[in-house]
């Protein structure tokens, strides 16, 4: 029997502070709830039909008693709030030790090694807002051909460079080497290439050619178990990058925007009849959460909601759709970093029961448990909700 799972990550769509959020400086964070109370109106009729308004109070999205499918939320067992940790836990791997972060910048050994390899001087080397960074450092970078190295509250080293000053392939090679350098001197979860264009302060803009270089998962994940069962695992968006390609059988990279990721998901659904389609829609986080743009976040959510009926329509009788997130990034919260929050879980299949409240799961691994049970008929993970 052919059956597939379509797993869509609405990157950063948290649904309220976790019990330990105060330890991360995130007391009061609630990405979806706070957005709804900040914008003039939030209309999500199709997510509403799946029960998203039953998970938390969302202004403009009422609770209903006839939700299609399953709804609930999940705590995070890993003590972090970053992309890599969140996705790995969704795939069944709890990170027992958090990745290193660098609130004071990277050690001199790391910076010197990057400079020696690239032949270019490094500037910045501290936590920075990715958008403010360009106004502050791009003019120098364009004049001198430097590398803008920066970080955040996540375990990440990012390198920004103007595409007309440092060709994109050169930037990619530098970032690939930077991962090796960091593995030696200052381990991180990811290196991110951040190309941009523009000519003066105020009009610099990141391009769509971002690329992530990640360390591989430390243990086997559901992606490995599914692919070892000779089922396809199709990564869309930055999914393959997050897992360093491990367990992914086909990478359909989408680095344009959310709409491109949605369209690639819809196309894959018409071509893939079994296995896993695993999509990450990063604009929510990258363009709106980190930039503290509630209105942009709202518009992007409404865009996804508009395409949701098409996604549901394309599900075969034995397919399963799961919509979730990987962490929060509350645009109403202080700072520009991720926020430690519950993630929503919405699940739908034409043969599933309707209006099922799964409550609060203790770990994101419940999603992996559900997918493995559905596709493989068995799982060693706890928390399956179907």
Features:
386 residues; alpha/beta; Alkaline Phosphatase, subunit A; Alpha-Beta Plaits; 8-stranded mixed β-sheet; 6-stranded mixed β-sheet; globular
Outline the structure in words.
By secondary structure, this protein is α/β, with parallel strands linked by helices. The protein has 2 domains: 4-95 and 218-376, Alkaline Phosphatase, subunit A (3-Layer(aba) Sandwich); 108-213, Alpha-Beta Plaits, CATH 3.30.70. It has 13 helices and 14 strands. It has helices at 31-38, 45-49, 52-55, 83-90, 108-118, 130-144, 168-185, 222-228, 239-242, 258-271, 283-289, 294-313, 365-376, and strands at 4-10, 70-74, 122-127, 147-151, 156-162, 190-197, 205-206, 211-214, 233-236, 250-252, 275-281, 320-324, 343-348, 356-361. The strands form 2 sheets. It has an 8-stranded mixed beta sheet, with helices on both faces. Strands 3, 4, 5, 6, 7 and 8 form a 6-stranded mixed beta sheet that branches. The longest helix is centred in the last third of the chain and has 20 residues, at 294-313. The model has no long low-confidence stretch (mean pLDDT 96).
């Amino acid at each position: 029997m052919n059956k597939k799972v379509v797993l869509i990550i609405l990157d950063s769509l948290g649904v309220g502070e976790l019990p330990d959020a105060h330890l991360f400086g995130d007391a009061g964070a609630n990405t979806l709830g706070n957005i709804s109370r900040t914008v003039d109106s939030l209309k999500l009729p199709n997510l509403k039909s799946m029960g998203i308004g039953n998970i938390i109070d969302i202004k403009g999205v009422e609770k209903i008693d006839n939700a299609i499918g399953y709804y609930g939320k999940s705590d995070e067992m890993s003590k972090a709030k970053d992309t890599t940790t969140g996705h790995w836990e969704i795939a069944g791997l709890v990170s027992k030790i958090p990745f290193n972060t660098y609130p004071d910048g990277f050690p001199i050994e790391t910076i010197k090694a990057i400079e020696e390899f690239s032949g270019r001087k490094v500037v910045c080397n501290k936590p920075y807002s990715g958008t403010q960074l360009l106004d502050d450092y791009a003019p120098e970078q364009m004049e001198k051909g430097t590398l803008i190295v920066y970080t955040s509250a996540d375990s990440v080293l990012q390198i920004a460079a103007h595409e007309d000053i440092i060709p994109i392939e050169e930037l990619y090679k530098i970032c690939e080497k930077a991962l090796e350098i960091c593995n030696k001197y200052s381990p991180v979860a990811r290196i991110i290439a951040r190309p941009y264009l523009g000519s003066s302060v105020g009009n610099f803009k990141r391009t769509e050619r971002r690329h992530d270089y990640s360390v591989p998962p430390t243990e086997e994940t559901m992606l490995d178990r599914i692919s070892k069962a000779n089922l396809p695992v199709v990564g869309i968006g930055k999914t393959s990058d997050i897992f360093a390609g491990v367990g992914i059988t086909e990478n359909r990279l989408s680095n344009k925007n959310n709409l491109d990721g949605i369209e690639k998901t819809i196309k894959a659904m018409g071509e893939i009849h079994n296995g896993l389609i695993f999509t990450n829609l990063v604009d929510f986080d990258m363009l709106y959460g980190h930039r503290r743009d509630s209105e942009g976040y709202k518009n992007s959510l409404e865009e996804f909601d508009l395409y949701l009926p098409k996604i549901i329509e394309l599900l075969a009788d034995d397919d399963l759709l799961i919509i979730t997130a990987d962490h929060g990034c509350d645009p109403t919260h202080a700072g520009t970093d991720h926020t430690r929050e519950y993630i929503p879980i919405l699940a739908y299949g034409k043969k599933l029961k309707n209006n099922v409240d799964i409550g609060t799961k203790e770990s994101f691994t419940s999603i992996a448990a559900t997918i493995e049970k559905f596709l493989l008929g068995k799982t060693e993970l706890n928390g399956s909700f179907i």
